[in-house]
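Write out this protein's structure.
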Amino acid sequence: MAVDEVVTDPNLLTVLDASRDTRVQALSLVDQLAAAGPAESASAEAQLETSKQQKLLITNLAQLRGLHRAAYFGARQTKAQTSEARQEVDRLHLQLQNLYYEQRHLQGEIKACESYDHTYQQLPLIPVEDFLAQRPEHANDDENTLMVARIEHERSERESLEQKRMELLKRKQKLIADNKKRKDDLANLDKELEKFIDAAKPIQKLFDKNV
């Protein structure tokens, strides 16, 4: 694979082009020096041309060094930017993983809540139809609101029944107390009656003798 197919950055391509041109010029200068022979035997015109080519080569080498330095700093800057971008990607990836774990945790909590055997589901509530017949204003309520209303209705009914039970219990206790008092009164009356009968026995005997 050719270098031009691997390198696509414009700055690096400029460096490669300058490098190729400088190499070609250097090889051309070498060939020219080899053809001219020793410098002391070369003609003045040949020496002048060689001097021009050497100066041009030095200029191109200086330009190549500048391009190379700029490419080096550009590569270093690109490397730093790539490192920062990689750190940002790693941070976002970690954040995404945390969100994924949190999502799984919340899904587990939701599933546990949905499968939880709530106590209110075991309450002996009246059927929905009967409740709506008594409280038609809840006919358009959603499921949760309707359940809350049914539970509140059940609570109200139980409180009312408990109040009636307490009133009946008080009446019962009062009746028991009244019955006990009457029973005690009857017992005392029996005792008094027995005393009266016992006290009247001598008189009865006197009546029996006179008869």
